[in-house]
Amino acid sequence: MSEAVVSTRIRLARNLKEYPFPVRLPADKAQEVVDKVGEALKDCGIKFHRIDADNVTDTILVSMIERHLVSPDFISNEKGRAVYLSDDNTVSIMVNEEDHIRLQVIKDGFELDEAFELADKIDNILSKKLNFAFNDRLGYLTQCPTNLGTGMRASVMLHLPALDMSGTVYRIGANLSKLGLTMRGLYGESTKPAGAFFQLSNQVTLGISEKAAIENLKNITTQLISQEMRARDGILNRIEVEDKISRALGVLKTAKLMDHNEAMQLLSLVRLGVTSKKLETLSAESIDKLIVEIQPASIMSRYSETMSAQERDIKRAQIIRKRFE
Fold this sequence. Notes:
Creatine Kinase, Chain A, domain 2; 325 residues; alpha+beta; 8-stranded antiparallel sheet; 2 domains
């Protein structure tokens, strides 16, 4: 399934019973919540480092979105917000975003069970130190009613170029809500797909267990992957598709300027060629890492936050050329 699955994520929303939701949380109380979460994490057996949102630049914050460490909502208001990151960035805990705690675990590949096991372990440790808002009938209480119950969002990042080319992916996406799922863009809610990368996640959190939600997501993901593989069988022997894939690799190896949208489209085609054994070049995993590295804010945070758009496009092309040497 590595041909179509890039990564999996488990996210748990939790709130502290003795504090109002973040939208009504005074600055001094927000700081208390940040400190309490940090203190509770000391017993997790995982080393975390803390980043206060109002102590870093906007460029760094956006680069964290690009690496899926925080959500777009997290940086909409930096005051009183912080994120705790594990050293390997597998675990990130946003504090005072929409809820007091957004615990997130990301794993490469199709590892939903493993991601949930780690998230559940950390959640259990935190629950012993913190007084989570919980109702016997409604489950975990959250600021947005759509997260009531388990407070869990499980998602899979998928690469579906064949279904994207045929337009089938959009018809499928329109029907997913009937199955309790939703399909979004690369960075979640309100974002558009880029390079045929889509996030598939559960939509229902109330009246369903975490296990049932994960099993439903796994089943639908498996069906989607099967449709993608059949669609690939139907297009990959077409000369025009093979030509697109070969040309994409040629441009990536030689271009001196590369904007973000073009890079995403070309890397998507090359990833399709690699996973379908039409090309021998970088592995799919290396391409996935490269996609994160060449995002706009990630380039600027690494090289210079004062880069112009053209300077960024020059650097992006340089990074890509070097990687494909």
